[in-house]
User: Fold this.
Amino acid sequence: MIIVVFFILISAFLLFVSTAPVAAQCPVCIVTVGGGMFLAQRLGIDDLLVSIWISALNTAIAFYLAPKINSGVRRNKILQIFANPWILSILLYLTTILYFQFTNQLGVSTNKLLGFDKIFLGQTIGLLTMFAGNYLYSYFKTKNGNKALFPYSKVVFPVGMVLLITLIFKFSFNL
Assistant:
């Protein structure tokens, strides 16, 4: 028993002392959120709330992939447009909307909020919220001498805003 406690304490100490840099919006985070969304739908969470997070996931994927695309297509000017995370986010947004349209999930008359389809509204809100979160992170980073305000702020700003917007819609409309 003493050996197990000692091992746990040493492991925890080494974990905190030897931290490695982590890529914000990394693939592990993306897969985790994606799995969470699948589970959320199975648990009966409202389509608007799930759509906000699906759109946020798409935007996180775009901001993760854009630098990788940029390093791979430096000489090809036509493909370089996809290296812009904002444009890639909009492209993923449009393909997701098309997917929902082709699978007949958009336009259901009983699935509306404020006169808009919940899935379409959620996708749009999620995209704009992630844009705002990423913009706020960049703004505060610039104001702070091009240094992050605090560790993981690149993740906290967008995800925190999406969480805040989700809670606002959840409690404002009893979703």
Remarks:
- The CA atoms of residues 107 and 116 lie 9 Å apart.
